[in-house]
Here is the input.
Amino acid sequence: MIVRLFLLAVLALNFLSAGDLVYRVPIQSTIDLGLPPFIERSIEEAEEAGAMAIVFDIDTFGGRVDGATQIKDAILGSKIMTVAFINRRAISAGALISLSCEKIIMTKGGTIGAATAVDMSGKKGSEKVISYMREEMASTAESRDRSKEIARGMVDEELSFTHLIIDGDSVDVSDLEGRKEGKLISLTTEQALKFHIADTTAESFEEVLAFLGLQDAEVVDLRVNWSEKLVRFLTDPTVSSLLMTLGFLGLLFEIQSPGWGIPGTVGLVCLTLFFGASLLTELATMTELLIIGVGVVLIVVEVFVIPGFGVVGLLGGLTIMAGLFMMLLPEHFLPADISAASWGFTIAIIGGLLALYLMGKALIKTDFWKKITLPFSEKITEGYSTSLGLGNLVGESGKAVSDLRPSGWATVGEKKLFVVTEGEFVANGDNLKILTVDGNRVVVRKTDNHD
Here is the structure.
């Protein structure tokens, strides 16, 4: 009986200690489309392990709004406590992610805010884009009982106010620069605490755990695995644009030459990497893939069925370009997204052409290129000649040792040569005279037996 009670006590202790888990997840550097799958995996693992909380270690200047929105949705849907530990800064898209967490803890000297939407050229988004982002921030703040006015002011500098209602009290905001029209709101750590955006300050992760009452909890540090690193690298705007451009140009160069070679292979590899990463991040849909597939089929028909480069190949190239352009647009896009995609597509093509030019310049200087090509001309004036050394035989006589119809074999002295007549038939055994020698082409004429 005592043994059973002891075993039950041990099991109970193990069960209780198993729940004292805290997951630490980094959100640093640029927020791209490769980050949401990592955050979603982290939340699922923490929930399955029965963790008490998941702490996001945030230090970012922002990134893609669509990527941040996916992360925000995953955090709001979490079944366990979510904490944003702003370890220096949470700017732009990072502010949206932070506001979605149940608790916000900031280091001294930290900042949060400046979440207005800009396109790829750095210009402010249209009113539709700003309106969407403004209310996205407001609704996220409202879901965590934070100030909607401050959240809106982080996005839209045209807003202005003098007081805020916080916990039922009117709070003066004269010390808040972003309260003025024409100024975006960015909060320091002290301001975030004053206006109840942040809950407390901490200078280390241990202080964060102490605030949560989990100082004795086991900490599980999650890191991006190799596959997620690869996807994040491939979905980086610069890398994905370069892959897309090189893939398209590779296929374009391939259809201009017969058969299948290096440009087509490189193009297919680049497009495979581009599409694979897009599928993993759910950026590509079946519609875009079908459009691109039709374009590839047209190019294959042009290469293997129709010689040369014509309408079919051009139509295939344009179809692929249309599909690639559509892949740059989010599922629910706004006019500003079309402008941003156009910029990205244009930059990708220009960047790809420039990269190919630089690669070509570097390639022709390598020993490998010199082995497979003739980088210089061999001139006669420099002593080079394609002649077989038969020039001294001009005027010499010989005899045909085969019928010349009009070419065949003849002997001149002790040499047996392959010769050609001026067009007439010469029978075997007839006498010949060498008229001219041009390289390895020896022209002869039939002569009388007494000549």
Remarks:
- Residues 73 and 100 are 8 Å apart (CA to CA).
- The longest helix spans residues 335-363.
- The chain has three domains: 2-224, 227-363, 391-446.
